[in-house]
Specification:
alpha+beta; Aspartate Aminotransferase, domain 1; 2 domains; 3-stranded mixed beta sheet; Aminotrans_3; pyridoxal phosphate binding; PyrdxlP-dep_Trfase_major; pyridoxal phosphate; identical protein binding
Length: 186
């Protein structure tokens, strides 16, 4: 039986990192992949991809939930998959551009940003421990209230930057500009 490798690709999968699955960046071939969120284009759906030879007893419907088997969600997922595949490569290119812009901001604001990391459009901007948590919250509130850019805090000192994978360069540039303005306001 052994130990199985399970890749939780709920947030990072389906093109977000510039490859269909984030585990591909690292040469990992998991025994099972868990998907959700972007699969349904905003509708509730999840999926498990598993090697049938390794999991012969795993059958459809073995795991149930309160929102499973929705025909609308399934139709949305089937229609969405070709779009996700189409935008997968552009996610990688746009992510490289965004990472380079965040690195520039790290240089401009050396006392604020301690690290920038990510793959594709799955990016984390980490702030120094000395930056008060309220200031990090201020960044997320300011850019949303004043400019409509939704950012998600991640842990104590990091903000996630995860725009839609089909974002165009103009909108991506605007989002990065808004983020930089928020840094200037600190």
């Amino acid at each position: 039986m052994g130990i199985y490798i399970i890749a939780d690709e709920i947030q990072s999968g389906l093109g977000r990192t510039g490859k269909m699955f984030a585990c591909e960046h690292f040469g990992i071939q998991p025994d099972m992949i868990i998907l959700s969120k972007s699969l349904g284009a905003g509708l509730p759906i999840g999926a498990v991809i598993a090697d049938a030879d390794k999991f012969p007893d795993l059958e459809p419907g073995m795991h149930s939930g309160s929102m499973h088997c929705s025909p609308l969600s399934c139709a949305a997922a089937l229609a969405n998959l070709p779009l996700l595949e189409k935008h997968c490569f552009s996610s990688l290119k746009r992510g490289k551009y965004a990472l380079s812009r965040f690195e520039e901001m790290k240089t401009k604001f050396p006392d604020i940003i301690s690290d920038v990391r990510g793959k594709g459009l799955f990016i984390g901007i980490e702030f120094f421990e000395t930056l008060e948590r309220d200031k990090i919250r201020k960044i997320t509130r300011t850019v949303y209230k004043k400019r409509g850019l939704l950012l998600a805090p991640c842990g104590e000192k990091t903000i996630r930057f995860c725009p839609p994978i089909n974002i165009n360069l103009t909108d991506l540039g605007e989002a990065l500009y808004i983020f930089e303005l928020a840094l200037k306001s600190l």
